[in-house]
Amino acid sequence: MDYPDWPTPVRFVEVTLTMREKEKTRAFVRFFLTDLSPDEATPKRLSRLVRGHWSIENQLHYVRDVTFDEDRCPIRIGSGPRVVATLRSLVIALCRACRWPNIAPALRSVSYRPRQALRLVTRTVTRKTK
Q1: Contact at 8 Å (CB) between 15 and 32?
Q2: pTM for the complete prediction?
Q3: Which of 116, 34, 41, 103 is nearest to 68 (CA)?
């Protein structure tokens, strides 16, 4: 069996994550790769790196998967998927710029008031360009 020729020594890190949802507690084991030396790979540093990884997962991928239900999007050909993904990214960025902690209620709010959404876009764009 051929193994990849890694440019630096690689180590596996096993992390047990505990999640509490309502009254249920679940544990998950996750494995990560790192090229940090044993001296650099302190538990504190590894914890910070893993949390940073999961913050991206929770703030972006979860929003795309759950709020936008991206996996069931019927647009599959041509440049359509890229255009729709760009529009979703724009909406997520606007919601974050307005400091809305939860995107789903924010989307519902502006969907009932389209003019509010237009004011939001123009206000955010002019504020960023000044």
Answers
A1: yes
A2: 0.57
A3: 103
